[in-house]
Amino acid sequence: MAGLQQTNSEKILLSWVRQSTRDYPQVSVTNFTTSWSDGLAFNALLHSHRPDLFDWNAVASQHSPVQRLDHAFNMARQHLGIEKLLDPEDVATACPDKKSILMYVTSLFQVLPQQVTMEAIREVEMLPRHSRVAREEHIQVHQQQRFSQEVSGVCFPTALKCWVP
């Protein structure tokens, strides 16, 4: 039941983000990992609800991903009271952490207008599965493989033996 609730929560959150950023052609949010790494989605989400805070074109065209992320996190902290929970360098990667992105976007959802249409939810349901899930699963497998390579030959005291893949 908790898994179903989480899935529905993610679907509603993704629907809200897509609906909010629809008017930003540079932004295409299809997941809670890679869609956020360039910083455009965070800024578009803020700008769609608070266009008075900054010039979208200046942010979108003149900054690196780390600068855009830093901008969005600073705007959210200064004007919405959301603590800077993420480091831009941790998000501006090939595969940012899904749970961290979800946590931060949920924080935005709690303070910004939350109107989500059924059309937006249906649109998310119609996204190709590979756009939403397979890509995220591929990223998780890649992270696990990289972790396995890093811990190769490391001793685990609780198991009282060494593990070598």
From TrEMBL:
Calponin-homology (CH) domain segment(s): 7-113
Gene: Dmd_3
Coiled coil: none
PANTHER family per the UniProt record, alphabetical: SPECTRIN/FILAMIN RELATED CYTOSKELETAL PROTEIN
Domain of life according to the entry: Eukaryota
A Pfam family that the UniProt record links to this protein: CH
Protein name: DMD protein
